[in-house]
Amino acid sequence: MRVTMAGLGVSGGENEISCVQDGRVFEHGDDWDVDSCVACACQVGRALTMLPLWVDKKVPQNPFGGHDNPLWSLWSPWSPCTTTCGRGNITRVRLCNNPPKQKGGSGCAGIATETKPCNNTPCPVPGGWTSWSEWGPCSKSCGGGLLSRERKCLNPAPQYGGKLCAGDASDYEACNKQPCLLDPCLLLTPCFPGVRCTSGSDGSWQCGECPVGSHGNGTHCEDDNECDVKGVCVTACVNTDPGFYCLPCPPRYKGTQPFGLGLKEAQRTRQVCTPYNPCKDNTHACHKHADCFYLGLASEVLYKCVCAVGFAGDGFLCGEDADLDGWPNSGLTCKRNGTYHCQMDNCPSVPNSGQEDLDVDGQDACSVDMDGDGTKASLTPDWWVPNDRDNCALVYNTEQRDTDLDGVGDQCDNCPLLHNPRQSDSDNDLVGDLCDDNEDIDEDGQQNSRDNCPYVANSNQADHDGDGKGDACDHDDDNDGVPDDRDNCRLVANPKQSDADGDGSGDACFDDFDNDNIPDALDPCPLNRDIKSTDFRKFQVVLLDPKGTAQSDPLWVIRSQGTELLQSANSDPGIALGYDKFNAVDFSVTFYVNTNRDDDYAGIVFAYQSSRRFYVVMWKQVSQAYWEKKPSKAFGTAGVSIKLVNSSTGPGEYLRNALWHTGNTRNQVRTLWHDPNKTGWKDYTAYRMHLIHRPKTGFIRVVVYEGREILSDSGAVYDHTLAGGRLGMFVFSQEHVLFSDLRYECRGTETNHHKSCLILTSENLCDFAFHLQITDVCWDKRNHPSSFGPLSPFLCFKGHLLTFTTSKCK
């Protein structure tokens, strides 16, 4: 039977040895009965349950198991730690006396003593000195100085609150006690002001280096002339003592104004002055639907604004232009440039760039009866009757000179030195058959005997000094004695080279580089005084099938002071050709077919040299075979085509069929590009056609807009066959074709000779050129001051010059 300790207790604290049970107190060694089965004994203050009682209630002599074996007492409290810092121990003990050992009994099992570590707090470590260092140099060379040495408290360094090293960290000893001689640096001040002087113990002295910005031996120093460094300043360099600075950039330029001390600073620093370009800086005032064109420093206004395709106005205000004729659908309140193209279009559905209104009803292009006489308007032109007494009725020639006495004045004689009264010109190149040898070594459309630069392509034949040598091959275009590469007005004689504002552009040509009285901002060809505006009022009619009877000849009507032409007949192929001649050119025209009859060709001609040699952009409405199957295949495909005409026969049925055919015809026509989308034109719809031609690189691009959107784009097409020529309009079997808002602009050369240049390298040139569709490479012939460096090649792009270091494109 087992019993529990319930009801048993201990009296007092741990040090008392009496026991308490049911309110009764028993001393050490006492025993008592709890009930008939349980007896207890008090041992050192603990009441222990004894074995169950026997029936006779006699307790065995040893109630703890029948042996005299004692038990462990309780553990004593832990002793204090053996150390106050660092590692120590604490201990506790117990006694084998519970109960005391009886006779024959054995000891207790286990240990009587238990130990564990204590006090892990590190003990303080006092610092210790290192060895003394070597003695240092004497602080004075004479007059008593000090030697010094040092030691450090790092052997070991104080730790955990340990004490610092006792004693001094530095030790001193007297040295050089001998008297000093007089200091020459103080006595003589032999060095240049600002130069350090060092005295020797023997009375000698030595000067240091001259101050920055000067040179010499330290005793004598002279100011450096930083302005002798080449290219440090674009403007004037001012040498100060010491130092230098650059004057501010010229008017209309922006850039740095360096300053500094010394030649190294001057070599490191370079003044950079770039023309202020509102278009590039986006500080212009152009309308959001206009493009900004930088005009350069030679122009009074730095830029011009041109409304984008599909809009019209003065560029500062632009409104929608549904018929693409350059006049807005609604009137604009323009404040600049007067009311130029800001008035409301009097016929917004039909292109009419001249805004003609004969009967003052507000519109002619939309009117059935233009003159108000009750009769439908006739499209037949009023033929001009020449003056019988004028030997050049269409050319101003007051002297009436006629060298060959053929009745035709020299000013309009196609062979002025050969008698040819009939003026026969079978190839329509303005050179009479009697003197036409068609020898043209530079392929510019000017035969060698008449070419003012026979070995340099210059279709425009510009010769501003009238010396018989074209500007393209003349090293002094204005004959003022200043070579073109140093002339600040290349086309206007100004031997004194006056330039009041110092911007590099001469006063004589400011805002009018070619001196044609047309401001550069409004001049379509600012480097050619012979071209002042887009003007087709004088045009040559070229018939490309003059003997054919399949259709009539084209019938052309001129309008809007030569900026609009109407072709009214369903005709054989023909051209209305202007007389202005171009090298690189941009040509734009609004194309409109004012009928729903027929579906054939119309377009533009460029680089025209003769009726045998020209480029043509042809646009057909639908695909169709030509009805005359001979002498060659002729199938026209819908869409825009760019063709090279290089005919061995010239006008006639062979050329006629070759022009109709979309493809190549040997010895006649070669198709350079055809729109793969085969998109034809639509009746009563205005389109804007834009041509870019750069003969020097052979670059050709044609873009056609319908409204604001691009309808067709040839991308970059290259052909070097023709190096420029004349512009015109082309028709073939299509009536009522209107060519409106005609605009041409010369490209390829700048009027301003100080450029905002982007330096290109061999790594980025080709990608850059392709991205911007750069189309011409030229040498700038105008003045380059020494600060701008020698002549450099330039890329010509949209009237801006970009210089480059290499031009190898694979």
From TrEMBL:
The keyword Repressor does not apply. Residues 426-445, 500-511 have a biased composition (Acidic residues). Residues 537-751 form the TSP C-terminal domain. GO terms for cellular component: extracellular region. SUPFAM superfamilies: Concanavalin A-like lectins/glucanases (SSF49899), TSP type-3 repeat (SSF103647), TSP-1 type 1 repeat (SSF82895). InterPro entries: ConA-like_dom_sf, EGF, EGF-like_Ca-bd_dom, EGF_Ca-bd_CS, NELL2-like_EGF, Thrombospondin_3-like_rpt, Thrombospondin_3_rpt, Thrombospondin_C. It comes from the Eukaryota. Residues 275-317 form the EGF-like domain. GO terms for molecular function: calcium ion binding. TSP type- repeats lie at residues 462-497. Residues 419-511 are annotated as: Disordered. Residues 462-473 have a biased composition (Basic and acidic residues). Keywords: Calcium, Cell adhesion, Disulfide bond, EGF-like domain, Glycoprotein, Repeat, Signal. One of its GO terms (biological process) is negative regulation of angiogenesis. PANTHER family: THROMBOSPONDIN, THROMBOSPONDIN-2. Belongs to the thrombospondin family. This is Thrombospondin-2-like.
